[in-house]
Amino acid sequence: MSNLLFDEPGPRARRRIRLATVAGVLVLLALLALAVRQFAANGQLAAERWQPYATWPMWRYLLGGLWSTALAAVVSAALAMAAGIALALGRLSRRRAVRLPSAAYVEAVRTIPALLLVYLVLFALPRYGLDLPLFWKLVVPLAVSNAAAFAEIFRAGIMSVERGQGEAALALGLTHGQSMRLVVLPQAARRVLPSIVSQSVGLLKDTSLGFVVSYAELLYSGKVLANYNGLLIQTYIVVALVYLVVNASLSALARSLDRSVAGGGGPGRRITRGRRITRVPR
Amino acid sequence: MSALLDHLPEFWQGLVVTLQMTAASFAGAAAVGLVIVAMRVGPVPVLRAVATVYVETLQNLPLLVLLVLAVFGLPEIGLKAGLTTTAVVVIALYEGAYIAEALRSGVNAISAGQGEAARALGLTFGQSLRHVVLPQALRTVVQPIGNIFIALTMNTSLAAAVGVVELTAAANRVNLLEAQPIPIFVGAGLAYAAIAACAGFVTGRLERRLAVAR
């Protein structure tokens, strides 16, 4: 990719690169030393403040939190994907009465923070007699807000399937529903698989809102643990590392899927071609 | 409805905080993104690796975890700052990774001839980045950066979870007083939607203005 901005370095450029390398490494080391000094000066490096995280009961508790995180993520992803497919089909429908509400839902939900939806479910619904169990108080708002994102992904996928595919299916005598279900959707789903996985990483990140709901997922478990043992920074660093490992693995999966989808060959194989879909912070 | 009108000052205050946080953290994120993308497309392997690790790390951590770590964890090692300041810095660092990625996709979209021409004219790496590559890259990523801006606006609401009283927290407080959730939360939602609509309008205009006929 990026030999766009420089050629094979000559002797002077090599010297400059060496200089920049040394400077970069020095800055990194300085930052690291500063961090260690801050930790040490405040007694946060003491072995007994880290040692608990080498014991099984701590990890059992945190892994229990991770399990709840996974459960919430899987359930809300399943709901959001189902709703997303329905919304995508709705937005592409020939009937206005279906098309407009679907578009309105997607556009409206795209601009509402997930936390606001969580507060709505947490504080508004009980007033109207709908007091969901804790698990659903997290899952429902996440599914509602992610459905819009999944809808846009599926819509892009469906639109990327060549017209001829649907037309051929119709010519064979399949109904509209059949051609969508048997011919267009399977191809679309395969093409958007990488986007689906990276959106799911985002959804998994969103489950940290369980912190607000007090649903015992990973971050809330960390909070409970930190309040119990007083090891604030240690606990949150461990929690962050767990999130990092899980999400980085999923992101790596998305990238390798991206490559294998791209490697499939054939015209118009990738929807990411030309205009790349960039990830949006969540 | 009266719940909303009676508490307009609180809502207004919350909206102002949200807008301030959005503006400050977007400015910070833009700066972070520029530095990271310059490191990432540059010729120095160490800096490229650092930038890659930065982007990968921040994109794979939930923002709320970073906020909680910064707000509750950092005072433990003697780093104390105002709540809002901490939140703004964390959001800027987090969104900076996304801006860097958007910019990088813009840089990669530029034809290699542009960079070669810049070098043939004798421009250094920094000069070709500043005068030739980035101006063109920015034009192609107006829309993605607009989307990041909208997502950033919504992400400032997460600061409510660590105690900053911005729009979402203001709505929540008013609701605790008035117990009329529907008008209150819908009002807050409309305010967010209005910000997003403005951002969408501006990026749409910008994109048309900056588009290069090819």
Automatic annotation (TrEMBL), chain A:
Protein topology in the membrane: Multi-pass membrane protein
Record has Transmembrane helix as a keyword: yes
UniProt biased composition (Basic residues): 270-282
Membrane-spanning intervals of the chain: 70-90, 102-122, 231-250
Region (Disordered): 261-282
Top-level taxon of origin: Bacteria
Entries under NCBIfam families matching the protein: HEQRo_perm_3TM
Family in the record: Belongs to the binding-protein-dependent transport system permease family.
Designated name of the protein: Amino acid ABC transporter permease
From TrEMBL, chain B:
Membrane topology: Multi-pass membrane protein
UniProt keyword list: Amino-acid transport, Cell membrane, Membrane, Transmembrane, Transmembrane helix, Transport
InterPro entries according to UniProt: AA_ABC_transptr_permease_3TM (IPR010065), ArtM/GltK/GlnP/TcyL/YhdX-like (IPR043429), MetI-like (IPR000515), MetI-like_sf (IPR035906)
Origin superkingdom: Bacteria
Compartments where found: Cell membrane
Cell membrane in keyword set: yes
Transmembrane feature ranges: 12-37, 49-71, 77-94, 148-170, 182-204
The ABC transmembrane type-1 domain, residue ranges: 15-203
Stated family: Belongs to the binding-protein-dependent transport system permease family. HisMQ subfamily.
Stated name of the protein: Glutamate ABC transporter permease
Provenance organism: Microbispora siamensis
